[in-house]
Amino acid sequence: MSWETVIGLETHVQLSTKTKLFSRASTSFGASPNTNVNLIDCGLPGVLPSVNKEAFYKAIRFGMAINAQINQTSIFDRKNYFYADLPKGYQITQMDLPIVLGGSIDIHAEESAKTINITRAHLEEDAGKSIHDEFDGFSAIDLNRAGTPLLEIVSEPEMSSAKEAVAYMKAMHQLVTYLDVSDGNMAQGSLRCDANVSIRKRGDKELGTRTEIKNINSFKFIEKAINFEIKRQIKILESGEKVIQETRLYDSSKDETRPMRSKEFANDYRYFPEPDLLPVIISDEEIQKIKDEFPELPREKEARYQSDLGLSAYDAQIIASSKTMADFFDTAVKKTKNYSLLSNWLIGEISAYLNKEQIEINESKLSADKVATLINRIDDQTISGKIGKSIFEEMCLSGASPDEIIESKGLKQISDDGAIEDIINDVIKDNPTQVEAYIGGKEKLFGFFVGQVMKITQGKANPKAVNRILKDKLK
Amino acid sequence: MSIQFKSITELRAMLDDKSISSSELIQESLQLAKKYKELNCFVTMNEKISVKKASSIDLNEKTNSTLSGIPLAQKDLFCTEGLRTTCSSKILSNFIPPYTATAVEKLEDAGSITIGKTNMDEFAMGSSNETSFFGNVHNPWKKGYVPGGSSGGSAAAVSAGIVPAATGTDTGGSIRQPAAHCGITGLKPTYGRVSRWGMIAFASSLDQAGPLARTAEDCAILLNAMSGHDSKDTTSLNSNVPDFLENINQPIDGLKIGIIKEFDISDLDTDVQACFEDSKKNYESLGAQFVEVSLPNISASVPTYYSIAPAECSSNLSRFDGVRFGHRAENTNDLNDLYIKSRSEGFGDEVKRRILIGTYALSAGYYDAYYKKAQQVRRLIKNDFDDVFKSVDLLMTPTSPNTAFKFGSKGTQNPVELYLEDLFTISSNLAGLPAISIPHGQVNSLPVGLQLIGNFLREDQLLNASHIFQKNSDFHLAKPNLEDF
Fold first, then answer.
1. Are residues A340 and A301 in the same domain?
2. Which of A130, B118, B361, B451 could be a cystine partner for B153, CB 3.0 to 4.6 Å?
3. Tell me: the pLDDT tens digits for A68-120?
4. DSSP code of B199?
5. ipTM
6. Which of A219, A251, A286 is the last residue in one of the domains?
7. How many domains is chain B built from?
8. How many Cβ pairs closer than 8 A exist between chain A and B?
């Protein structure tokens, strides 16, 4: 029998605001436990929430980017449940009136393009963290994350494979980082998703019973978790049994999903409108301001790189695909005239290095300024491309500027004809046998002479000048 | 000269002409609190700090603030930094807040001195002060009688003349009803007039802080200090705050007062009725005109309130879970056990009852029938008031259907009996309107209160009408005989 998979994703995007959604405590990642916490975040008696408009602006920017309807009046609701890392005993969220309604995202999976419709996206506050394995006999609570703004983006169930789900999350990652609404750091939990997976007979109209896999936070795990779940469900259906609707967790160490204990999700959340907050209204002026300050998106960047900077479509697409890479390129491009050399380096040498180290360019010791200088030194022939590569290695290690490295290691290219001629004369004098052979027709030996010159100059001789003078001398 | 039973205006004059220092005033106020300890008005005293503040005020001679050096008492649900705040609940019996409520902060910034925190119904849930973890408060007028609630301790402390004024909060009548039962003046301002920051929430959309004092004039003095927009409370109103003393002496010629047809007072005690009829005549002689008005939906106020308030309370009280502050049960097996035991031990019966009612009203399948329906009815009630205020300036009702009653005599078998105490007061909370209770007589040596309800943000009219009444009568000057205490 032929089966068809149906997947919908609920993505939680942590918005990159400086302070929390309903308090002025910092949202910085990695602070000591319970230090980014104020009276509001720990839910003391008598405290009240007050809204951080920046989170609304970011949510609206996202909505505009996916061509959604923006609700300028935001109403909040309380979702009530007890958990130790939920200080108030309720989460402030948006139930009936999400800030973003509808819209769509384009994805590219395995050579094919597809448009995934978005149901809604709403603002809510994150909970804190429970730590169960650090203190013997106790659970610890860290409220640093409590109150951090989240945008929960719900897709329509329109993906049909794990690969498409990954492509959707990649598109989401590109979008939220480009829009500067989130740092998109999946390892730190800034971008995570719940996957709703169901199986039906190919051609069926009705959806099968779905399970929800909670809190997946890497592209790799999304693919693995969904594929495991697809196989598990097909196996159940093929054995004639029924899939149970439930919430499951993906265990990456065992590469399997398993049901969460019923206690953890069997809740009646008793939603009701949050009486501590008046409706938040975003004015037409604020909407206009968001439009005016709208960042350049990947498609627009690609087009600009081709038309204004003369990059190839391929190069433009690669550079624009990552926000950090494009930002780096945009800064560096202001400091050099040789755009194509810069893009070659970014796509070649620099990407190779970043891949090897598994880091983003903003996590490396490279700065746009220094890379532009390197390109300029190659471009103005102070150094050769080959020397450039060794300088680049040094830059990656020490973070030193190319000029410092050229200076301290004496790597400046020898372009002075007189100096090169002197060296060539020595090489000719020292290698009479080879000279004879060359003149006798063994033209392959030309490379030997170039090599000798480079050996003596430690690679610093300007290769073009060496070629020209050598040819002249060996006539 | 004793300071007992003196109003703020009188004490101000004594301070200004140096017949008393602030230190002496505070000492005497603290002495009175001790003397009448049996009334059980206070949960926690603030002796050391208030004495220190008074002496520093005495050293800084010049002041232009009316409240400078005046002793006040704060209802024990306003957070006070470093001073225990219990909500009269076991679950908060060890809670010392790290911050101060805006309303208290504003009063203290104006120079007033908090001498202590007053007893109340647990989490402000009650109309008799009998739900307090710290015991009943006696009505200063009669031992063994309730002072009303939930701001019972504040009302009793003012009534007994220990402090000239105190703060209270009013969710369904919790300022006005105890003011009525204790023979003092109590004002519930417009919802949003006073910031709720630091006020431990019972029902967020109904709670409002306000003053209890001996006179309407003193209420105006406190309201002047307490009011104003607060960026920490987004529901606080961003409207201009007038000087509530400025027009308090205006003649009330032509003032139009509505009598609500749906409140049939002929059912009430004949003496309570007689007070009401007398006050009508009084007002008429002062130039006011009475018209009968209809608020067709107002009779639904009590059930509406008892759907909305418990719903909000059930959520608001979730934070009392024994995890971060307050009472935590010992010997618990897991997180769920910790919740169940801490909350079962920490909350009293009435609080538990309301959490249960509210949880039920919000649960799946019942939300539409209870909470949502109640919100719709609330809107209708508010619309009724909007209509009525097109033709009248104020509305007048009794504050309470009866006078103070004996401990344990109401609501022990059927809680609804006690809920009906709030019949006349609840609708102004649902509509967010200001309302005041002033004394206007006695029945069997127990005070009777008169309620005036004003239009949105028109506390000035309420205070004006009350002040003119008090200038022309002496009900508010009656003092309890405290010899039993």
1. yes
2. B118
3. 999 999 999 999 999 999 999 999 999 989 999 999 999 988 778 899 999 99
4. B
5. 0.95
6. A286
7. 1
8. 105
